[in-house]
Amino acid sequence: MESDLLSKKLRFVPFDSGSSEHAERLRLQRVACGWAEDMIEPWRQAHEAGTKGIYWLVLRDDLPDAGNLIEKHRSKYPDERFPLIDTSASVLGSGRTPTAAEILPVGHIAIERQPAKDKYLGLAAGEVAWITSLYLSYAMHNRGLGRDAMRWAEEALAREPFGARVAYLDTTDKSFQLQEHVVHAAYTERGHAVPEALRSNEEWYRHQGYEVVRRKADGYPWVTQDGEKIDIPLVFLKKQLA
């Protein structure tokens, strides 16, 4: 799938569920994200089973200024400075021939079914699929790469093995995410500059054509760096694909 769905800025290379190097890089990126670093093993198992397709985001070689962007990423995340090797032999239950080429992931994204969430929202499971786990290096923000990844994922969901008519996702409720203490925990405490024009994930997705379906007050448990436990309120969004 990664070869025949085109993107102007990124290549999408499958995660290798059998590689300790791939697993460690995924862990490092989830730590940088600040979310779900404890989910590496369940995600690895789901990818291995073909129920979750995890893809690395890799800058295209012909992207203008790609070399400079890579150096910015390596400088911000020195533990990620070394490339991985494309060794994945399957994704979403289909075999593939790995290229054995070096890749330097600057993020990742996943596409999958979410039966429990389908049931919670009363969805026709065969008609919907989910975009999950999107992460993009903080050194790469505001360059259109996230939008490029979303367009690719939406096109992938519309094809087999999903054949989805609607894309779903969930993210942090904007009213929570933009609170001062949450911004401080998400940015300042993690060494990231707070953007001058701060926009919530919810607003970012809505700008791409997603619409709110439902809000859930007790979404995901989150433990801040100082050990505080918080229930993150969620918002579910959808976008018609066909």
UniProtKB/TrEMBL annotation:
<dbReference type="GO" id="GO:0016747">
    <property type="term" value="F:acyltransferase activity, transferring groups other than amino-acyl groups"/>
</dbReference>
<dbReference type="Pfam" id="PF00583">
    <property type="entry name" value="Acetyltransf_1"/>
</dbReference>
<dbReference type="InterPro" id="IPR016181">
    <property type="entry name" value="Acyl_CoA_acyltransferase"/>
</dbReference>
<dbReference type="InterPro" id="IPR000182">
    <property type="entry name" value="GNAT_dom"/>
</dbReference>
<feature type="domain" description="N-acetyltransferase">
    <location>
        <begin position="102"/>
        <end position="173"/>
    </location>
</feature>
<protein>
    <recommendedName>
        <fullName>N-acetyltransferase domain-containing protein</fullName>
    </recommendedName>
</protein>
